[in-house]
Write a structure and sequence with these properties.
mainly alpha, 4 helices, about 75% helix
Length: about 120
């Protein structure tokens, strides 16, 4: 929701092209990737924070969900040629698990219970 809300704000401010038009400019795609990574880390931190036990496992579960959805986005992007650069959905898939891991690490370090994911 945060990513889509940020997308909408950037569309309204005319930073991004109108909805439905492909966005090929590398800088804009990098901007989208950057805030999506920040939101992924934050979301994983929240998942770890709300976990009744095994916070890192909960953070990583969220990361795997993000990876699967992003991998599906790569498949769609490969089949459709006019959605934007192919590196963007690939980068989303590649960063899903590291971002989830970071969110879990930030939480566990803050609690003083750093454990390795299983």
């Amino acid at each position: 929701m945060l990513s889509l809300g940020t997308d909408q704000v950037l569309h309204v401010l005319h930073v991004y092209p109108p909805w439905g038009q492909p966005m090929f400019e590398p800088g804009l795609n990098f901007l989208a990737l950057a805030y999506r990574c920040v939101y992924a880390v934050l979301g994983s931190w929240v998942a770890a924070r709300l976990a009744p036990s095994a916070p890192m496992r909960h953070a990583m579960a969220l990361g795997w969900i993000g990876f699967v959805l992003s991998a599906a986005g790569v498949v769609v992007a490969v089949k459709a040629s006019n959605l934007g650069p192919l590196w963007y959905p690939i980068a989303l898939a590649v960063t899903a698990l590291p971002c989830a891991w970071l969110g879990g690490i930030f939480f566990t370090r803050g609690r003083g219970t750093m454990t390795a994911p299983r």
